[in-house]
Amino acid sequence: MSILKxxxxxxxxxxxxxxxxxxxxxxxxxxEQEIREAEEAxxxxxxxxTKLKGTEISMKRELNSLNTDISDxxxxxLEALNQGxxxxxxxxxxxxxxxxxxxxxxxxxxxKLSAEVSKINTMIKNxxxxxxxxxxxxxxxxxxxxxxxxxxxxSTNFAATGSSxxxxxxxxxxxxxxxxxxxxxMEAGDWMAEEGDVDDLNKELKEAxxxxxxxxxxxxxxxxxxxxxxxx
Length: 232
Description:
Helix content is about 90%, strand content about 0%. With about 230 residues, it is an all-alpha fold. The chain has 2 domains: about 1-160, Helix Hairpins (Orthogonal Bundle), CATH 1.10.287; about 185-230, no CATH class. The protein is rod-shaped. The N and C termini lie far apart (about 135 Å).
């Protein structure tokens, strides 16, 4: 990671909290840049590997062709020998020798190239795994950072609106009290209305002579006379 190394090198001599603060503040951006550079390097390496793999495939095809030619010439050399034409058989044998020499040289090159292709391919795969892991870690860091920002924002808003929220809470309590008082008044009004209905009913019954039990002087005198008669 060249950018990160350069920044650490630039701040290494300082060795103070400000240097660390600069790195921490830009850590996500630096890591994002490092990952982009690593991915670009991997893409270039893959392009080069593709070319090497193409060369490997071509060399394999040439080797297969040489093996086919050698086998074909061996068959022809045997036919020449069977015909007693040793001179022709020798010419064919010399051609076979040329092909075998060429095959041996190309086989060595092919084996080295194939091993190199396999090695580079393994390196690219391993490096890509590291990049993917770093990308996942970076996403975690970014998620936590956003969560920290959100939490901090909420805390700040709570602190800033604390007194306002308190005033609103008190206002709501006053409204509730007024509503409760209004309900009490309404209930008292209903009770008075019911009482008024009872008084009107009693008045109508009294006027009709129903249930009347009024006390008068005459009624008391009659009661006393009744008692006098009972005691005589």
